Amino acid sequence: MTDLTDFISGLPKCELHLHIEGTLEPELKFALAARNNVTLPYADADEMRAGYVFHDLPSFLACYYEGMSVLLTEADFYDLAWAYLAKAQAQNVRYAEIFFDPQAHTSRGVSFDTVIRGLRRAVMDAHRLLDVRAQLIMCFMRDLSAGFAMATLLESLPYREWIVGVGLDSDERDNPPVKFAAVFARARAEGYQLTMHCDLDQENSVDHIRQCLDVIGVDRIDHGVNCLESEELQTEIKARGLGLTVCPVSNGYVRGSAWQDAVRQLLDRGLRVTVSSDDPAYMDGYVTENLLAVQATTPLSAAELVQLQRNAFEAAWLPAAVKDVCLAELDAYAGR
Ligand code: ADE
Ligand code: ZN
Fold first, then answer.
1. Which residue among 64, 144, 166, 169 is best mutated to probe the pocket of ligand 1, counting the most ligand atoms within 8 A of its Cβ?
2. pLDDT at 254
3. For 231-270, b where at least 16 C-beta lie within 10 A, e where not — what string?
4. DSSP annotation of 39
5. From CA 295, how far away is CA 290, in angstroms rounded?
6. Which residues of the chain have pLDDT under 50?
7. Please, are residues 315 and 193 in contact by the beta-carbon 8 Å criterion?
8. 292 Cβ neighbours under 8 A, 6+ residues apart
């Protein structure tokens, strides 16, 4: 078997499933804590990493939300996003769509304006100084009320041009897509693109994916691996050309080896599967490491690795002309 590690390193990449708060590395957490006079319950970064023990989605989310206490000022959000974008450049990510969780901050007294201004400035600087493109996706937290989500959507409208779409994340249990039908209908009316998490092996996973298609009318699905349990869903997702943003390392944390062949299966069935990193600072794997994790269990050919990136650029919420530039760069790399 050819070792494709170098090929993966150089591959022009597109990341579509990345929570910016999930890129907060322990070292930056300590630096921001010092700047903001926040006391952390760990002596140092190593001890903090050792404390990251989770075995399912809720135990991960508890750790993830706790980690945000150091994010207080516009500069903090800038530094967070800039650190990710610099890492992305080092891994030849050419374009990233970045989730942020405003409610996790506004509920702590940090204003929406503070969050978005910091993130937006980093996105602009990354394009100018790093030649990395990015756009922001605002996620609603599904374990909070639909009313709070709607209020957050309305709060976002003055910044509409800085946000390409909306998503739905956090704990899926007892929080189905239909709970947010009115919020997503309004988001659509405001011109936002729509995506939603359909996490692995949730209660009613298949039904939740069905709701995303029939009730919400999503433009993409985050994770969505359980569509492999329904031929009908696969046919519909394929017919609509929807991207599925799969995160292999994260899935391993949440579901062990249960779905480690998901990327292989989705590719074989001709679905528009992509590979992303979800919460890399907590799960020890940016996009390159996620591709290598797939290689370690279900090796892909060079052509299939290129196909994953082609899928991602095609599923991206970019103007056609920009997509064409990205795809041409990918083709040039593939044909070298
Ligand atoms: N928020 C951050 N990461 C998440 C994930 N993997 N699933 C749901 N919500 C999240
Ligand atoms: Zn996610």
1. 169
2. 85
3. eebbebbeeeebbbbbbbbbbbbbbeeebbebbbebbeee
4. P
5. 9
6. none
7. no
8. 5, 8
* CATH architecture of the region 5-334: Alpha-Beta Barrel (3.20)
Q: How many other C-beta atoms are found inside a 10 Å radius of the C-beta of residue 34?
A: 11
Q: Residue ranges per domain, the chain?
A: 5-334
d(CA 64, CA 41): 14
List the residue whose alpha carbon is closest to atom 10 of ligand 1: 170
Distance in Å, CA 19 to ligand 2 centroid: 6
∠ Cα 242 22 196 (to 5°): 25
pTM over 0.85: yes
R_g (Cα) of the chain, nearest Å: 19
How far, in Å, from the CA of 324 to the mean position of ligand 1? 30
Which position has the token pair 């892909």?
300
At position 55, the amino acid (one-letter code) is H
State the distance from the centre of ligand 1 to the C-alpha of 203, rounded, in angstroms.
Answer: 16
